[in-house]
Amino acid sequence: MKGMLKSIQRAPHMLTSKVGMSSKSTDAEFNELNRKFTAIEDYSNKLIKDSTAFRDAVNNMMSSQSDFAAVFAVLLSPLDSSESLSALTSRHPQAADTLKNIDNYNTIMEGLKQSVLPEIELIDTRILAPLKEYQEICKKIRKAITKRDHKLVDFDRHNNSYTKLRDKKEKTLNDEKNLFKVEQDYEQASQEYEHHNSLLKTELPQFFSYTQAFISPLFTSFYYMQLNVIYNMLEQLKGFVDNENMIDLSVSIDDAYRQKLGDAAVQLDNMNITKRFVSTARMMQNARQVSSADTSPAPSRSVSGVSTLSAGAAGISRSASTATAPPPYTAASTTGATGTKRAPPPPPALKPKPPPPPAAKVYVTALYDFEAQADGDLSFKAGDKIELVTRTDSTEDWWTGNYVQE
User: Fold this and answer.
1) How many CB atoms lie within 10 A of CB 266?
2) Tell me, what DSSP letter sits at residue 382?
3) What three-state secondary structure class fits 1?
4) How is 40-99 classified by DSSP, letter by letter?
5) What share of the chain is helix, strand, coil (3-state, %, to 5)?
6) What is the DSSP letter of 310?
7) Do residues 66 and 110 touch, judged by C-beta distance below 8 A?
8) Phi-psi bin for 54: left (phi > 0), alpha (psi -120 to 50), beta?
């Protein structure tokens, strides 16, 4: 409830500071420290994400390879349990190497999964666990920075109120009474802001040095853990290939695969069980259509301008038709018993869009006196009203405006 009340009190100042109607304090040194801390937050989050992705990828790869070997062994196992492996190999000489080595491959995949498991556990304990603790520390520092920003808003809010009331030329009795209270609020807000701002500017550089001492060896350890996983996989798989002599590494893997594949794809396409299934009703309908087409007599046709055939006792003789060519095609008349068809009326004209409303003018009030120092500068006094022409997002830049005569 207390935090909500403070948010409501800060809202008017935050709104007016965005449109340039209230002054806003800035600290360039702290802004640079805050930028570096934000970059460190992003880097630590990315390191956690990449470490988790690598761990999960290795786990999934090991599980997939083990499952692949088990399923392959089931697919290539003899359908008849009484048939020996040698008999199966003699019937399928193309799959001799696979049938011979599939059990060994399944064994080595299980062994590889068990050997990589300790490295995966090291990533959890030596990399991810310290990074998550570091992330919790960063969250606490981010809360301190947020609190410092809130204190800065309070400082600017009370500073503007105190300055406005202090510089008021004709003060009433209530203004004199409120001036003392406003000044006390301003002093308290100034002390709280300076405390949090100085604390962060002092300790953030120390945190950066500790971060460098923590992240550098952590990143190095993660790098060598990745190498251990990759080298372990390479060593065991290469040893399996060298011992079994099942793959010739001097030949391209793609070329070797296509060479062993042969015409297996063509043979598979020629199998009836790979064809699309046709229902019995459809097959009977096709058979009836074929039988009816064979038994029905062929209809006689006479085509103008085309040679015809005539059958006789002596054989078949060809005679040319003397029929004349058909007349050229002419479009039918559009008029009939119902009369001429009328064209549809044209669509109504679109109404023009109304012009956009003119942009609302923005005015600001000068807080201090200013004398022009160069060509193009605008001189004004405190309390003068100025129309804004162009402005930027930063209150530290020069804005363009027109002096309003009242």
Assistant:
1) 8
2) T
3) coil
4) HHHHHHHHHHHHHHHHHHHHHHHHHHHHHHHHHHHHHS-SSTTS-HHHHHHH-GGGHHHH
5) 65, 5, 30
6) E
7) yes
8) alpha
**pLDDT value of position 3:** 61
Indicate the residue type of 342.
Answer: R
Residue-wise pLDDT for 74-125, tens only, equals 776 665 555 666 666 676 666 666 666 777 777 788 888 888 888 889 999 9
Please identify which residue in the block is written with the tokens 């406003």: 182
DSSP, collapsed to helix, strand or coil, labels residue 265 as helix
Joined tokens for residue 213: 């001492």
Whether 372 contacts 378, CB under 8 Å: yes
Alpha carbon distance 17, 23 (integer Å): 6
Cα–Cα distance for residue pair 296/291, rounded to 1 Å: 9
Give mean pLDDT, residues 314-323: 41
What's the CA gap between 195 and 136, in Å, rounded? 23
Average pLDDT over residues 6-29: 69
Return the ∠ at Cα 241 (arms to 235 and 243), rounded to 5°: 95
What does the pLDDT average to over 208-234? 90
> Tell me: the pLDDT tens digits for 327-365?
555 544 444 444 456 777 777 777 777 777 777 788 888
Vertex 56 angle, CA 55 and 58, to 5°: 70
The arithmetic mean of pLDDT across residues 178-194, rounded, is: 88
